[in-house]
Amino acid sequence: MAARTSVKARHPLPRLVGVISSRDDLRFAIRMRNPPDLFELRLDHLVGIVNELENKLSMLPAPLIITARHPREGGANNLSIKQRRELLSRFLPHARYIDVELRSAKALRSLLEIARRKNVRRIVSFHNFSSTPSTRSLRARARATKSCGADIFKVATRTDTPAQLARLLDFIANKDVDLAVSAMGIGKLGGISRLELMRRGQPSLRDIRRWTLSVGR
């Protein structure tokens, strides 16, 4: 099970997220004595065990984020938009948050509206596994995210160089982004990005260590 951290912006955000992407993750999460703030169900990875998953949701000790990733943003099993919509719709009644990519937001607009009516908070996300776009480009994506009615903009970008990391940090610090933001850097400077983002609202090293020890991985 992977751990993910988030940055606080205009509104309080969950601090630690445990990602469930396999049957083993699910079984382990159910047994956790010190769970994270939320579990993220990677439904694109869990398509083979959806009945088992649905039957065991009540046993999970933390609220849920549901997501079914687009194949071009790290999604598994090459799912079509129809398959992803059906998965998200099936698990929406159990969710505290729903996470869809910005590239999918238009196609899933009706589902996001249903989520709004059910008081499920909406995360719209952007992933770039090759670089970090310019601050201007990230701001434009944040505006597009807000126009979709999102509560939170989640961004994960490649931070292999100081320049890439600086662009991500500049975006987080920008006062014009009128939206809660959850950010993470990946790559060679991913660890440093977490330390720098921690100074801007990320959980403490003690919090991260406590959670890591609790999952034993």
Keywords for this structure?
single chain; 217 residues; alpha/beta; TIM Barrel; eight-stranded mixed sheet; 9 helices; globular
Cα distance spanning the termini? 8 Å
- Largest β-sheet summary: 8 strands, mixed
Average pLDDT works out at 88
Find the count of extended strands (DSSP E, 2+ residues): 8
Low-confidence runs (pLDDT<50, min 5 residues)? 6-14, 202-217
Total count of domains: 1
CATH superfamily membership: Aldolase class I
Query: Given the structure, what is the number of helices?
Result: 9
Approximate shape: globular
Overall description:
By secondary structure, the chain is of the alpha/beta class. The protein has a single domain (2-215), classed as Alpha-Beta Barrel (TIM Barrel), CATH 3.20.20. It has helices at 23-31, 50-56, 81-91, 102-105, 109-117, 135-147, 162-173, 190-198, 205-215, and strands at 2-5, 16-20, 38-42, 64-67, 97-101, 121-128, 152-158, 180-186. It has an eight-stranded mixed sheet. Helix 6 (135-147) crosses helix 7 (162-173). The longest helix has 13 residues, at 135-147. The model is unreliable at 6-14 and 202-217 (pLDDT under 50).
